[in-house]
Amino acid sequence: HLFVMSYLNSESENESHLLNVIVSLQAQELQCDVNRTKNKNISEYQQIDAKINQQLTDNHNALKQIPEVYSNVLDRIKFAQGKIKSCKEKIDRCKTSLQCQREDLKRLYLDSVTNGQILDLLARIDKVREVSGVLDNYIKHKHYQHATKLLKTNVALLEGNLSSVDALKDIKEELKKRKDTLHLELIQQLQNHLYLKAPSAKEKVQLFRSGEPPEMDNEEEYEDEEEDLTKDPEEDTYKFLKLLIQSLQQLDRLDETEEVLEKNMESELRSILNNTAQDLLYKKRLTDQIDNQPTLFPELLEECFAKYRAVAASHHVVINAIEHLKFSSQASRYSNSRVWSNIQTCVEYLLRDYLAVDEDVTAQTLNTAPISFVAAKSEMSMFFARRRPEKVHQSLFSFESSATGLTRSSECRTQQYNSDSATTAYELKLPDLCQKSPHNITLVFKQITNFIREINNVINMTGTQLIPLQHFLNEFVDNKFLPTLQGKVKKDIAEATEVIQVSTW
Length: 505
Known about the structure:
single chain; mainly alpha
């Protein structure tokens, strides 16, 4: 037990000794670590201190250079301020100089503009002085569109920019007179081509036979014509008519043109009628064919119809051109229906004259029948000639000469022809191409009805309404021709009956 106790005591001492050793060893290790750390820190400190010393040295050198740099910068700033001040002084001097030069330049610019305008006005004045010669040349070759544009431009110039030039007042008055003269010439040319040139265009006359007017059936198809100075403007009549209308529109005379055309239309159409009759009579006299008089009336009527178709076609072109160029939508009296109405009036006038409408029925019954009726009467006379005594007895019953017959005829004439188109309104006297008689209607009835059909197709007459020419024809046949024919038949029957009775006695 003591051993054990001693052993245990020794063990305890060893353990404490061991612990002390361990502790001492740990302390030594910690000391080594501290020393190593200390040496390391000392080394790092030395390095940092060296760097700080180097930086301090560098900063000290830099601080020594800063005053020098500052003085250099300050010198440069002072130098720049001097240059800026000098530039500002120069700018002020330039500004003052430019202000003076600006006034000079402005004055020179205004002088140049004024001189340019003066030169332009002088050039225009030279052109204005030459207008008369150029205008005469255009009018001589019938280039009316160019003439109108030239005249209108120069008149506007003289009334505008050159209105204050006193030396041009005479030229301005002359051009205004030329403008009025040109207007009259355009109207004259328009009427010549409507009533003289157009009827000679035989290839275009047939266009109205089918009821289809030539060209420009719609306003959208209308195109302004441009005048070609290298060609004859009268080659195409319709194009020339449109050029004339455009020229009149440039002169602002379309309304006056419509009035003149509408006013002169009937007289011009009647002139065509009279001239055609005169020409036909002259040709027949030259060829010694004047003896065959009844055939001249249908020939005259056919010639007039052909010319009236051409005139209506030309009027159609003119009317469409005017409607396209006019700005106002107001309806005008000058229209296609007005043209055909005047044509019908002239045809009615022709028929009234050669059908002896306004002459006494009884006076015409014996002496005005055409050859066919005269031949029939002569054959009847020859049939009874051998048994007819030489003494001619008067008819016991004369229906035409009775009071009832005369009263009825007078009433018919009064009712039929008491209208605005009475023959007293006409001043022209047609030549006697044939013997005038109501029986002439048998020679031209088919022609007239065909012409009436053409008119109906052109003016699109619908319903039961009759055109004036159709109404005249119906009234003439019902109230003039048929009663005359009936009276003649009754007279022939009375004469034949008388002859038979005489031969029987």
